[in-house]
Amino acid sequence: MTSALYSPTASGSAALPQQVGPSVPKPIDTVRVAELIGQLLAALGEDPTREGLAGTPARVAGFYDAFLSPDPSTATCFTETSLSGQLVIVGGMSLWSLCEHHMLPMNLQVTAGYLPQGEVLGLSKFGRIAQQHAGRLQVQERFTRQVAEEITNVIGSPDVAVAVRGTHLCMSMRGVRMEQARTDTVQAGGRFQTDPILSQQFLTLSTTQWKAA
């Protein structure tokens, strides 16, 4: 389930069919990016060779190279046969991504939950999975779905839910310029779709994480 409500306080969920997102980005041509940034500065009326800007094209190219080339995530699961019906939630994961519509930053507060079945996923892997999908040109709705789908594939169970609260500079510093606006998205599968009590527990704990951030 995914919901995207462009409101300072609203959140929810709605059915979303499986979708195919963009392929993994190709390696970045940093030399070409630096050239283009220099051209952009000139088009903006600046002198890209002046003091203060002389190294800017290379620095910007280096930023894109590092930001859009995250390390691949590797999942580690540990056998734990004594667990039964326990809800595991990992929150407080704050990441940056780039909105693909305006190439402006968006901050994503991520909470993930699942029901272990005979094994548990290493806690740091939730953050690595989220980082990998954030390190590209994105939209929050697709990011939420991709993180949930990868966790589902790793643990081999559909009992996964991911909630994301986003702050989008494309909305807060341009356009309507609403600095307090937030976007909430939720992707849920398995028992998180069919068990209203479990779903409410997850959403309640997710919003608690966001308020504490």
Q: Key features?
A:
single chain; 213 residues; alpha+beta; 6-stranded mixed β-sheet; two-stranded antiparallel ribbon; 8 strands; elongated; disordered N terminus
How would you sum up this structure in a few lines?
With 213 residues, the chain is α+β, with helices and mostly antiparallel strands. Helices cover 37% and strands 22% of the residues.
Give a topology summary.
Layout: E1 5-6, H1 30-43, H2 56-67, E2 77-79, E3 88-99, E4 105-114, E5 119-121, H3 123-134, E6 137-138, H4 140-155, E7 160-168, H5 169-172, E8 183-188, H6 191-194, H7 196-212
Parallel strand pairs: 3-6
Antiparallel strand pairs: 1-8, 2-5, 3-4, 4-7, 7-8
Q: Can you walk through the features of this model?
A:
With about 210 residues, this protein is of the alpha+beta class. Helices cover about 35% and strands about 20% of the residues. A 6-stranded mixed β-sheet has the order 1-8-7-4-3-6, with helices on both faces. β3 and β4 form a beta hairpin. The protein is elongated. The N terminus is likely disordered.
Query: Could you say which overall geometry the principal axes of the C-alpha atoms support?
Result: elongated
Q: What's the overall average pLDDT, rounded?
A: 87
What is the N-to-C succession of helices and strands? Answer: EHHEEEEHEHEHEHH
Radius of gyration: 19 Å
Largest sheet descriptor: 6 strands, mixed
Q: What is the number of helices?
A: 7
Give the end-to-end Cα distance, rounded to a whole number of Å: 24 Å
User: Strand arrangement, largest sheet?
Assistant: 1-8-7-4-3-6
Query: Low-confidence parts lasting 5 or more residues at pLDDT below 50?
Result: 1-20
Strand content: 15-25%
The proportion of residues forming helix, as a percent range, comes to 25-40%
Class from secondary-structure proportions: alpha+beta
